[in-house]
Amino acid sequence: MKRLEKLFKESKKISIDSKDKFIIFSDLHIGNGGFNDDFSPNSQLLIHILNNHYFNKGYKLILNGDVEELYKFSYKDIYNRWSEFYQMLDKYNSVNRLFKIVGNHDYELKLNPHLQTQYELLDSLILEYKKKNIFIFHGHQTSSKIEQYSKLALFLVKYIFRTVSNKSVPIDNNKKYLTEEISYKFSSHNRLISILGHTHRPLFESLSKIDSLKLTIENLCRQYSISDDSKQKKIRNFISEYKHELEGILEKGDSNTYRDSIYNNKILIPCLFNSGAVTGKRGITGIEIKKGKISLVYWFDVFRSRRYLNYQDVAAKKLKGTNFYKASLKTDSLDYVFSRIDLLS
């Protein structure tokens, strides 16, 4: 908590209004383009939507940590392989629409500033909206050991663990939960919105995917009981789809990954958000802020995933001239979110 207080006080702050547009992506883990580069599968999707959708529509880009995978690769090799990506970042940077935040996997850029000189590197960022704060940070700061021993952690992962396995070293489930719990307590106590990365787990208004699915199923069951026969048939199909997805998630993970009622509060404060990761198996999740609203969005290639194309209350829109779709999973008014935080905290 003390580390987050210090981080918050030292954050760069910018004032925004309903005319501003932001897209937040985190955990790209860009490598050298080889077989163990976690960025490769979704690289062309990300580069295309940033170049042809978000830039053209006037969005500011926030990269919320773990952009480069410096535990496994050198910055030089990454930069040389993904010149197309960095040319796109240059485009945002040239019009002051790029904010690059450091994570634990790219922390070497903080230790050795000469490696990257073209972009300002932030530890965190605050967007001030109507005198309310949206606090954006990667999330590794909740673990003091990673920060305190950054040089040691970098050495161990890059030069010792890598000799055993070329795969990424994932954050374990207990640490994911602890990161969220500490960030949630800090956010609710200070009556602000926090947007994280780090755990690769999308969150909207402090609800995990499993929580959201359960609420959706419950609401559909309620609608079913008061609907006519034609509507009941449609609702039954939606419930079947959501139930199948929920069962699949529960079968895959252990209890720590998908805890119910996270943070064990009697009243859940909608203060914690997470943009998920660019390295998703089926697509990319991110957080959009525009027109005074905040949204959790999911980008996917229809040839790799058809999820959310036919879900109730999920608007999936095709990007013209491509096979790419954007699904808006959850959207809410910032005014409404902040009002609930103030009233419930």
What does this 3D model show about the protein?
This protein has helices at residues 2-9, 40-54, 75-81, 83-94, 108-111, 144-148, 150-164, 173-189, 209-225, 229-252, 334-344; strands spanning 12-16, 21-25, 60-64, 98-101, 121-122, 124-129, 132-137, 193-196, 272-274, 284-290, 293-301, 315-318, 324-333. The chain is globular, with a radius of gyration of 20 Å. The protein starts with a helix and ends with a helix. Helix 9 runs antiparallel to helix 10 (229-252). The chain has two domains: 2-208 and 260-344, Purple Acid Phosphatase, chain A, domain 2 (4-Layer Sandwich); 212-252. It contains eleven helices and 13 strands. Helix 2 links the parallel strand 2 (21-25) and strand 3 (60-64). The strands form two sheets. The chain has an eight-stranded mixed β-sheet. The protein has a five-stranded mixed β-sheet with strand order 1-6-7-8-9. The chain is an alpha/beta fold.
Beta-strand residue fraction: 15-25%
The CATH topology label of the largest domain is Purple Acid Phosphatase, chain A, domain 2
What general outline do the C-alpha atoms trace? Answer: globular
Q: Report the CATH superfamily of the largest domain.
A: Metallo-dependent phosphatases
N-C termini distance: 17 Å
**Name of the CATH class of the largest domain:** Alpha Beta
CATH architecture of the largest domain: 4-Layer Sandwich
Low-pLDDT segments, ≥5 res: 163-169, 254-261
The tally of beta strands, per DSSP, is: 13
Average per-residue pLDDT, rounded, comes to 87
Task: Round the Cα radius of gyration to an integer and report it.
Answer: 20 Å
